[in-house]
């Protein structure tokens, strides 16, 4: 028997498989589950349990960023425009969002 809390989580949790590696992306704000206005700027955390990840990555997601403010002269395929796979996975839920890694070196 599955507990009702597991069927309807109290906090947002996503199990991720990014580039063949598994991890957990989660938030600590329950309003993300029910209040769309909470999706403007919010924090998510990612943990994979892999040896190279020494601490949980703290990410700030901004869904109202302005993509036209990025440098227009760069080729979209240039190394400066490439994004980590985890950011691209986050953008499957929040298209066009910017992700700040808050001092953590991006991985995945």
UniProtKB/TrEMBL annotation:
<dbReference type="Pfam" id="PF13898">
    <property type="entry name" value="MINDY-3_4_CD"/>
</dbReference>
<comment type="function">
    <text>Hydrolase that can remove 'Lys-48'-linked conjugated ubiquitin from proteins.</text>
</comment>
<keyword id="KW-0833">Ubl conjugation pathway</keyword>
<dbReference type="GO" id="GO:0006508">
    <property type="term" value="P:proteolysis"/>
</dbReference>
<dbReference type="GO" id="GO:1990380">
    <property type="term" value="F:K48-linked deubiquitinase activity"/>
</dbReference>
<keyword id="KW-0378">Hydrolase</keyword>
<dbReference type="InterPro" id="IPR039785">
    <property type="entry name" value="MINY3/4"/>
</dbReference>
<dbReference type="GO" id="GO:0071108">
    <property type="term" value="P:protein K48-linked deubiquitination"/>
</dbReference>
<keyword id="KW-0788">Thiol protease</keyword>
<keyword id="KW-0645">Protease</keyword>
<dbReference type="InterPro" id="IPR025257">
    <property type="entry name" value="MINDY-3/4_CD"/>
</dbReference>
<protein>
    <recommendedName>
        <fullName>Ubiquitin carboxyl-terminal hydrolase MINDY</fullName>
        <ecNumber>3.4.19.12</ecNumber>
    </recommendedName>
</protein>
<dbReference type="GO" id="GO:0004843">
    <property type="term" value="F:cysteine-type deubiquitinase activity"/>
</dbReference>
<feature type="domain" description="Deubiquitinating enzyme MINDY-3/4 conserved">
    <location>
        <begin position="2"/>
        <end position="103"/>
    </location>
</feature>
<comment type="similarity">
    <text>Belongs to the MINDY deubiquitinase family. FAM188 subfamily.</text>
</comment>
């Amino acid at each position: 028997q599955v507990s009702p809390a597991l069927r309807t989580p109290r906090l947002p949790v996503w199990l991720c498989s990014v580039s063949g590696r598994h991890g957990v992306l989660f938030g600590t704000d329950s309003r993300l589950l029910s209040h769309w206005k909470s999706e403007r700027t919010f924090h998510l955390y990612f943990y994979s349990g892999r040896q190279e990840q020494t601490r949980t990555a703290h990410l700030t997601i901004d869904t109202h960023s302005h993509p036209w403010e990025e440098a227009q002269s760069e080729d979209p395929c240039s190394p400066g425009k490439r994004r980590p796979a985890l950011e691209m996975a986050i953008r499957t839920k929040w298209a066009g969002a910017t992700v700040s890694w808050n001092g953590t070196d991006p991985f995945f």
